[in-house]
């Protein structure tokens, strides 16, 4: 069984007799969806300490009508608008071991007690933050595999999540593609992966306050290509003392970077096809 990295939408549903839930000591659990819980009317105690959680949405707590206590200590909490509901003046929920709840970010609050910072900071909107623990930085893959790249982010207001491929193509939940599919929660699926699919994939989480980005590097059969390496050159004609070659430039590349010691070049279209006769 794989490590628990996130609790996604409706992960726990229709558990009418559950009174206590414990998900502790998961070093990669860094994200809980706003709507992670549904139809759990009797839950009283939620134990989430010693994970990698940066925050927990108020709506998640509001979906648990009988909740009395939460254990969130020993998590790297972000002390900004996402957790303002934890202010003792705004909630009746009891936080276990509050003297072990410290801010990990932003830098100006690092190391301070959460309850003290929340009495000072009252901003209602904040930047997206991608959960680093759940994000794959480097992957080594075999040809033909289907890979799933998880990207989770929290912010107020909710961020839009999209991905950018190594060739500069933007992948959204509306993108229609046999190769790529993006879930509403931010997971990019790449099917039947090939060497030419290797490269650096960028996740972008964006709202009205700004954006956060993370890059996942994929090697396929030990190979890592970038946009310039994916350039394909075709031999159109071979003579005794020269050859005629042509190549196409990717849509995200404005000019060709190929250099020849001696060549006569014809540009059919500066954004599409180049032809060169090389002596």
From TrEMBL:
Domain Ig-like: 128-219
Gene3D superfamilies: Immunoglobulins, Ribonuclease Inhibitor
Keywords, comma-separated and alphabetical: Disulfide bond, Glycoprotein, Leucine-rich repeat, Repeat, Signal
Keyword Signal part of the UniProt annotation: yes
UniProt keyword annotation of Ribosomal protein present: no
Transmembrane parts of this sequence: none
Protein name (database record): Leucine rich repeat neuronal 1
Source species: Ambystoma mexicanum (Axolotl)
């Amino acid at each position: 069984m794989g490590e628990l990295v996130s609790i996604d939408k409706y992960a726990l549903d229709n558990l009418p007799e559950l009174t206590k839930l414990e998900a502790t000591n998961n070093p990669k659990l860094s994200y809980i969806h706003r709507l992670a819980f549904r139809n759990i009317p009797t839950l009283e105690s939620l134990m989430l300490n010693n994970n990698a959680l940066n925050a927990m949405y108020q709506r998640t707590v509001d979906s648990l009508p009988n909740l009395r206590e939460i254990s969130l200590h020993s998590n790297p909490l972000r002390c900004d608008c996402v957790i303002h509901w934890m202010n003792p003046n705004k909630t009746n929920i009891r936080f276990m071991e509050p003297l072990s709840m410290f801010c990990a970010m932003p830098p100006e609050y690092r190391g301070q007690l959460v309850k003290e910072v929340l009495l000072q900071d009252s901003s209602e909107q904040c930047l997206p933050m991608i959960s680093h623990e759940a994000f794959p930085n480097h992957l080594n893959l075999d040809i033909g595999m289907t890979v799933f790249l998880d990207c989770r982010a929290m912010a107020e207001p909710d961020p839009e999540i999209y991905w950018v491929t190594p060739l500069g193509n933007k992948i959204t939940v509306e993108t229609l593609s046999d190769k790529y599919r993006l879930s509403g929660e931010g997971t990019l699926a790449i099917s039947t992966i090939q060497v030419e699919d290797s490269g650096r994939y960028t996740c972008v989480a964006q709202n009205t306050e700004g954006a956060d980005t993370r890059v996942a590097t994929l090697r396929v059969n030990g190979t890592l290509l970038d946009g310039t390496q994916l350039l394909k050159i075709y031999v159109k004609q071979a003579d005794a003392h020269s050859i005629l070659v042509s190549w196409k430039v990717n849509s995200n590349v404005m000019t060709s970077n190929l250099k020849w010691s001696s060549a006569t070049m014809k540009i059919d279209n500066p954004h599409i096809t180049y032809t060169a006769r090389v002596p």
